[in-house]
Design brief:
- The chain has about 130 residues and is an all-alpha fold.
- The protein has one domain.
- α1 crosses α2.
- The protein is elongated and about 70 Å long.
- The C terminus is likely disordered.
Length: about 130
């Protein structure tokens, strides 16, 4: 049999819907918690606010997934040589997600335009936590 050249092959991790939903739930809770810390928790239940928070949570989750995919693209080839590749791949993915989530949370808190400050402005909340 003639050898088949497989040098143009690559491996990829498919991130499941459960991970995506968990990220959205995490970021929705994170944003609501940050609003509560700032005395704006009551506005979270205001009309339209949960939808805006969910929208922000989906946006941040998508950003985490993009960053994680970019980070782990090249990591798979080496991990498949490990004795338990499934466990190793999951560990790599978990670590990459945790790092990306932490970095994106910090960026979100400091980004005046597209971060928490921007959301507060969109919600029309003043410094006292009341709707304008």
């Amino acid at each position: 049999m003639t050898a088949i050249d497989c040098t143009d092959c690559s491996l990829a991790i498919e991130i499941g819907e459960g991970v995506k939903r968990a990220l959205v739930r995490h970021f929705a809770a994170f944003i609501a918690g940050q609003l509560a810390i700032r005395g704006m928790g009551a506005t979270v239940t205001a009309a339209g606010t949960p939808d805006k928070i969910d929208g922000e949570a989906w946006r941040l989750a998508a950003r985490v997934l993009r960053e994680v995919r970019a980070d782990i693209d090249g990591a798979l080839d080496e991990t498949l040589l490990a004795p338990d590749p499934q466990k190793t791949v999951q560990q790599i993915l978990s670590a990459a997600v945790e790092i990306a989530v932490r970095d994106i949370e910090q960026h979100y808190l400091g980004d005046d335009l597209f971060g928490l400050a921007g959301l507060i402005e969109k919600l029309g909340i003043d410094e006292l936590g009341t709707a304008r």
